[in-house]
Amino acid sequence: MREKVKDLVKSTMISIGMAMTIFCLAGVVFDIGYKGNFSLDNYRFTKMVIGSLLVGLGFGIPTIVYENENLPMPVRVIIHMGTGCIVYTIVAFAVGWIGGAATLTQGILIAAVQFAIAFIVWSLFMSHYRKEAEKMNDIIQKMK
Known about the structure:
Blueprint: H1 2-33, H2 44-60, H3 73-95, H4 104-143
């Protein structure tokens, strides 16, 4: 039980770190795109940082579903990514990442890019953990 909590905290901290990193990189891109005139008023920066924290929690906490071996992997992925993407969408509208001055087409494009990034990050982690499991299996097989 203690190990599961430790793993959950670790994956949640990694998710929060990833969300904050992506937020900072996106901020740099927008600052460059606006030629140094990118400004956030009325606590928008603070709201966006809190939003990034919530997105990190939204993708990190549901990783506990991977501990349930009784669920098929596609169901676990849908629960994990579905929860994360729903949290992201709500936060994105609340803090202004999607919506506002953007047209409907721009909003859909922004959302699609951000969901694609989420699935790319998930794919990278899944690939890493699969390789790690293969290495462990190889070591176990050599021990026999």
